[in-house]
Amino acid sequence: EQLVESGGGLVQPGGSLRLSCAASGFAFSSYDMNWVRQAPGKGLEWLSYISSSGSTIYYADSVKGRFTISRDNAKNSLYLQMNSLRVEDTAIYYCSGPGLPWGQGTLVTVSS
Amino acid sequence: DVVMTQSPLSLPVTLGQPASLSCRSSQSLVHSDGNTYLNWFQQRPGRSPRRLIYQVSNRDSGVPDRFSGSGSGTDFTLKISRVEAEDVGVYYCMQATHWPPITFGQGTRLEIK
After folding, report:
1. Which of B48, B106, B107 sits opposite A94 (nearest CB)?
2. Do B48 and A105 touch (CB under 8 A)?
3. CB A29 within 8 A of CB A42
4. Which candidate, A34, A35, B17, B89, has a CA 20 to 30 Å from the CA of A59?
5. Chain B residue whose CA is closest to A5
6. In chain B, what are the helix, strand and coil shares in percent, each to the nearest 5?
7. How far is A107 from A42, CA to CA, in rounded Å?
8. Can you name the residues that pair with B66 across neighbouring β-strands?
């Protein structure tokens, strides 16, 4: 069982990024999935949830209207489209699922 | 939103001694299905979080039996029977009973005295 996040990087305020999470070693299409982030030196913040089929989606208020979660079960992949990025979105972004080991995360830095 | 409050924020412990970490929720975490969705995570320095305990008291696979979870309603505890050097890190509680949003506590930093 493995989750590998990618797509992070340095972006200017107001910019966009698309994060990916590649799943392997388990039946990805059977798992509800989440995105969680951790700002430098801070705690964990839940961002978004998507059901196994993709039919149910939730967002934290802090990202609602700016971030979009999606998945492609045929590709065993989870995504997070991040628009209108702010300095306070700077964090390590993790994908997670119940009982699954967390990946290493991907660092997003929003700075001018 | 359910507020999760952990205490203490910092916990110095002597090797081989027990440790007790507290987590309190702003409302009962008993779900309408009868389950209590309270998890504990460990984050070692420089590492990703790892789930230790789910639904209050169930240890995840590979978690040493020196870790145990207990509690009910709004008060929960993670206990380490004998602290080892590899236990250093930050421990978070998380609730998934009343969601969205899923909420985490602010973390307890365990260090060796």
Report:
1. B48
2. yes
3. no
4. B89
5. B48
6. 5, 50, 50
7. 14
8. none
Q: What is the pLDDT along chain B (113 residues), one digit of tens a residue?
A: 999 999 999 999 999 999 999 999 999 999 999 999 999 999 999 999 999 999 999 999 999 999 999 999 999 999 999 999 999 999 999 999 999 999 999 999 999 99
Residues A17-49: tens digit of each pLDDT: 999 999 999 999 999 999 999 999 999 999 999
Are the C-beta atoms of residues A32 and A95 closer than 8 Å to each other? no
Residue type at A12?
A: Q
Residue in B90, B104, B105 closest to A46 by CB:
B104
The amino acid that residue B94 corresponds to is: M
Phi/psi of residue B25, nearest 5 degrees:
-110, 155
Q: Report how far apart, in Å, the C-alpha atoms of A20 and of each of A30, A80, B12, B82 are.
A: 18, 7, 38, 39
What residues in chain A have their Cβ under 8 A from chain B's Cβ atoms? 34, 36, 43-46, 49, 58-61, 94, 98-99, 101-105
- Residues across chain A: 112
Residue B100: closest CA among A63, A93, A22? A63
Q: What are phi and psi of A111, to 5 degrees?
A: -160, 150
Q: Which residues of B touch A (CB under 8 A)?
A: 41, 48-51, 54, 60, 90, 92, 94, 99-107
- Cβ contacts below 8 Å, chain A against chain B, sum to 43
